[in-house]
TrEMBL record:
<dbReference type="GO" id="GO:0006487">
    <property type="term" value="P:protein N-linked glycosylation"/>
</dbReference>
<dbReference type="GO" id="GO:0016020">
    <property type="term" value="C:membrane"/>
</dbReference>
<dbReference type="GO" id="GO:0006493">
    <property type="term" value="P:protein O-linked glycosylation"/>
</dbReference>
<dbReference type="GO" id="GO:0000032">
    <property type="term" value="P:cell wall mannoprotein biosynthetic process"/>
</dbReference>
<dbReference type="GO" id="GO:0005794">
    <property type="term" value="C:Golgi apparatus"/>
</dbReference>
<protein>
    <submittedName>
        <fullName>Uncharacterized protein</fullName>
    </submittedName>
</protein>
<dbReference type="GO" id="GO:0000026">
    <property type="term" value="F:alpha-1,2-mannosyltransferase activity"/>
</dbReference>
Length: 359
């Protein structure tokens, strides 16, 4: 609680690259959105806010991916709201990288999703949602349009950026040796990942050499806020980085442990027989195969994706945040929530290194 109450403006490191500095805007990164043509209006909302709070000063390129061709209306709609000289890439995902793979038994999928829908699991029967989770887990970082980039900032439709971000995020990642950045930590619906943990442990037994001695193991197991999750998954608290916002070093995803892990998971079929999300998959991989000191909580970034937010505490006289978020407020539905969804505290307790705590 103490750490949350601190006034947070930006990381306390002396190598921040600010707008106008020689290295400003020269990081090797792109903002990435996987979207449908029908998402145009909502992704424009996100882009406008990100440009205003951050990217107008840094000029990073955008990359849009879709499982269908982008229409001219979509492409023009995006270009029209961005400066003329801004690099914007539009790409299509080949069907073999997007669709349900041949190895999946469709009857079994239908049967399992019938059950899940009865259990009120969201998106259970939405096949494209399963495709999306699999794509973000094991495919996107090998898309040809991303081959030249090292870092990706993932952007979704209909999100909010409440506060100015006055330093170069990609340069922060590289200059401070970070491979992953997040803003929110939440518990998952255990129904969607019943066998993800046991499958993961099977993989780890086959490849103990992939484990990182500095991994965030205790974080994965801390069920103090939510005991039921732990039982349903047979060992995983379900706490994960909420990947609708993420800054990723693609070298980590392209590394042998990550690639082998997601291929192993893919063969298990859980992206379809269950509804494994890319968020728990990414989080398990990071906690097991990466050093926790390389994972950064961007507590200074004011962010909202329905229904959760990260809202930093600013100095009283500061105009950094736009006044639409309440410092420390996490959920849009604070009083309606059945059990605590926020597991930020377990990350702070188990996995924030001394260096990160003071950053
Ligand atoms: P939620 O945040 O978990 O409710 O899921 P979203 O509906 O926001 O989907 C996550 C991301 O994937 C968003 O950027 C969506 O635009 C994108 N997405 C989801 N389904 C599809 C799809 O079928 N095709 C494409 N091209 N993008 C999709
Ligand atoms: Mn979303």
């Amino acid at each position: 609680d103490e750490i949350l109450a601190q006034e947070i403006t930006e990381p306390k490191v002396d190598n921040l690259v600010r707008s106008g500095d020689p290295l400003s805007g020269k990081g090797n990164g792109t903002i990435l959105s996987l979207v449908k043509n029908s998402d145009l209006e909502n992704i424009i909302g996100s882009i406008r806010q990100l440009e205003k709070q951050y990217n107008k000063n840094f000029g990073y390129p955008y990359t849009f991916l879709n499982d269908e061709e982008f229409t001219d209306e979509f492409k023009d709609g995006i270009r029209n709201i961005l400066p003329k000289d801004r690099i914007v890439n539009f790409g299509i995902i080949s069907p073999d990288k997007w669709n349900m793979p041949d190895g999946i038994d469709r009857e079994r999928y239908d049967k399992e999703m019938e059950k899940m829908e009865t259990g009120e699991v969201s998106y259970a029967k939405v096949e494209s949602y399963h495709n999306m989770c699999r794509f973000y887990s094991k495919e996107y970082y090998n898309h040809p349009l991303l081959s030249e980039y090292r870092y990706v900032w993932r952007l979704e439709p209909s999100v909010d950026f409440y506060c100015k971000i006055e330093y170069d995020i990609f340069q922060f990642m590289s200059m401070n040796d970070k491979i992953y950045g997040f803003v929110l930590n939440v518990y998952d619906d255990p129904e969607t990942i019943r066998t993800l943990w046991t499958s993961t442990m099977e993989f780890v037994k086959e490849h103990p050499d992939y484990l990182n001695v500095g991994g965030a193991f205790k974080w994965l197991k801390d069920n103090s806020q939510n005991p039921k999750c732990y039982e349903d998954t047979q060992g995983y608290s379900t706490c994960h980085f909420w990947t609708n916002f993420e800054i990723v070093d693609l070298e980590f995803l392209r590394s042998e442990p990550y690639e082998q892990y997601v291929q192993f998971l893919d063969k298990k079929g859980g992206f379809y027989y269950e509804r494994w999300g890319d968020a728990p998959v990414r989080s398990l991989a990071l906690a097991l195969f990466a050093d926790k000191s390389r994972i950064h909580w961007f507590r200074d970034i004011g962010y909202h994706h329905l229904p959760y937010a990260n809202c930093p505490t600013c100095p009283d006289d500061s105009d950094r945040c736009n006044g639409t978020c309440i410092p420390g407020k996490f959920s849009d539905f604070e009083d309606k929530i059945m059990y605590k969804q926020n597991c930020q505290a377990t990350w702070i307790k188990h996995s924030m290194t001394d260096e990160e705590l003071h950053m």
